[in-house]
Amino acid sequence: MKLSKTAVFALAVLLFGCRTAPVPPEVLNACHQEEDLRGAGASLFAGPEHAAYLRSLAAARLTLERENLKLGWFRDYGKVRGEFAAVLRTGEAVEARVRAAVAGRTASLAQSAEAVRRRLRTLDGLTLSLVERGQARSRLTRATLALTEAEAMIDQAKFDQASARLETASKLAAEAEKAVITHISRYLDPAQVRSWKNAAEETIADSRSRGVTAFVVTKLERRLLVYRAGKLVRTYDVGLGFNGLADKRYAGDNATPEGRYKVIRKIPSSLYYKALLIDYPNDEDRRWFAREKARGGIPRAVGIGGDVEIHGGGQDSLTRGCVSLDNDKMDELYALASVGTPVTIIGTMELENYVIKAIGNN
Amino acid sequence: MKGLTLALALVLVFTSCAKQPTQLMDQAKAAIQSVIDAKGGVYAKDELNKLQGDLQAALDAVNAQAKKFFKKYGPAKEMLTKVIADADSVKALIPGRIAEAKAAAETALNEAKTAVEEAKALLEKAPKGKGTKADIEAMKADLGGIETALADVNSALAAEDYFGAKDKAVVIKEKAAGITEQINAAIAKVKGR
Fold first, then answer.
1. Domain boundaries defined on chain A
2. Which fold, A189-350?
3. What are phi and psi of B73, to 5 degrees?
4. Helices (DSSP H) in chain A: which residue ranges?
5. Hey, which end of chain A has fewer CB within 10 Å, N or C?
6. What is the pLDDT of residues A153-162, one digit of tens each?
7. A141–B53: do the CB atoms touch at under 8 Å?
8. Which among A34, A62, A316 is the nearest to B64, CB-wise?
9. Which residues of B touch A35 (CB under 8 A)?
10. What domain range includes position B156?
11. What is the pLDDT of residues B32-47, one digit of tens each?
């Protein structure tokens, strides 16, 4: 009797246990693939294809379920294997599509980000060279922050958010650009530039005709050009006032005056190394000042200012309206200057100046 | 013959006339909606995606049975019940995750504020002599922009956009640290003269 029970058990194991076919590995692989696709945002980047994939996966699982309901002896996973293999192939195609979509959007947004970064770089250079330290710099900083955030979002495939941040960065860059243009609008006006150019050319012509040395300061390029008998013999980098690109209007506005001046005194030892005092305000400045004051264009209590010099102390500094050079260059300039040397200070001689080019490129 | 008819009738009653588990389907949908309402889309994104996938699979199973003559909704019901239970579990996770994200955002904001304050303090101490004025003025303006951006972090926190707030704060902190480096370079430049 005991033997017979053991035989029945062994037979049962043989029939229903040991003869059960293993579930094909494709089933588990499909599980992993389903998770991977979900994590990769397949529904977002390949919506219809992903939905079709999920339907075929559900159908394959139903086939598996049906097969599992059969007694082990009768199970045949051949069809299940085939269906899951097909699902895996579909999934691979969806994966490829997701990868392509992600790569495409990443490339497109990265390109936009690079364009914004280029624009910000140009504006950064412009604001630094123009010493614009108000609205433009502040907006530029915020634009840079927004751009950095956008770039991180692109890396994380958060494309919609990245796109929104890029738009913010672009908007702030446009505002910074507008602030820069407001700051230097005169430099973009061809009539104004022609007038400056004429003043410089007259100075150079005078240097040629009289055979004397003359200085021309171009504020936009921050250069001091030395002409001898009408010929350019030296070029120096210079620093200007806190508000150097503006034309001087009154005392304390930190602007550097524009006009035709001359050296009236050579100071061998000034507060800022050697200095050449120029005759600001000249007669034209005084007339303009009186007219503007009468018109109410400038505050009643302020004076016209004075003591504008070309001095040492460093060309990368900010003055209160003077023109500054590095001390070794000041030594050279000091030696070249005499009392009476013409000094013409203008905005720029270049109609196609770098500001126009930079803004145009943007 | 009578017995056969009765048996057939019974089979029809228990199989082909089985009703769709509409109540359970509605409950499962409502459970997922409550996860979405609890900001699951932000704080339990992967789990929510999985829940939505599971719900779809359950609904597909219901539809597959609906097309059959002998309907058997048992497995679909099990799937729907699991979706409801899983949705409840996910929903329970969210408050903890929000608290975690909020704390991380606040920490990042404090770090950003500290970095900005450090930069400002250093800027105050920086020698404003010849050669550094222009740099310092530019950096002051940059810090002004950063302080405005700090207000954006506070706005994001107030709007409970904790991930966004943290991302912004981290970027601000890095930028402020960059300015501190620039100030130190400007100071070194003056000292080096």
1. 1-183, 189-350
2. L,D-transpeptidase catalytic domain-like (2.40.440)
3. -90, 0
4. 2-12, 25-39, 42-45, 47-69, 78-129, 135-155, 159-183, 190-210, 283-295, 327-336, 354-361
5. N
6. 999 888 999 9
7. no
8. A62
9. 50
10. 98-191
11. 999 999 999 989 988 9
A152 vs B137: CB contact, 8 Å cut-off? no
Q: Quick check: B140 and A133 CB within 8 A?
A: yes
- What is the nearest CA distance from B17 to chain A, expressed in angstroms? 22
pLDDT (mean) for B108-134 = 83
**What residues have CB less than 8 Å from B172, skipping those under 6 apart?**
A145, B112, B115, B116, B146, B149, B150, B153
To the nearest whole number, what is the mean pLDDT of chain A?
87
Search chain A and give the residue with CA nearest B179.
Answer: A141
Please give the pLDDT value at position A8: 65
Q: Do B141 and A58 touch (CB under 8 A)?
A: no
Angle at B58 between CA B52 and CA B64, to 5 degrees: 135
For this complex, say whether ipTM is above 0.95: no
What pTM, to 2 d.p., does this model score? 0.68
**What are A29-48's pLDDT values in tens digits?**
998 899 889 888 898 899 99
CA distance, residue A133 to nearest chain B CA (Å): 5
B140 and A38 within 8 Å at the Cβ level: the answer is no
Look at B134 and A128 and tell me if their CB atoms are within 8 Å.
yes
Among partner residues B60, B132, B144, which is closest to A55 by beta-carbon distance?
A: B60
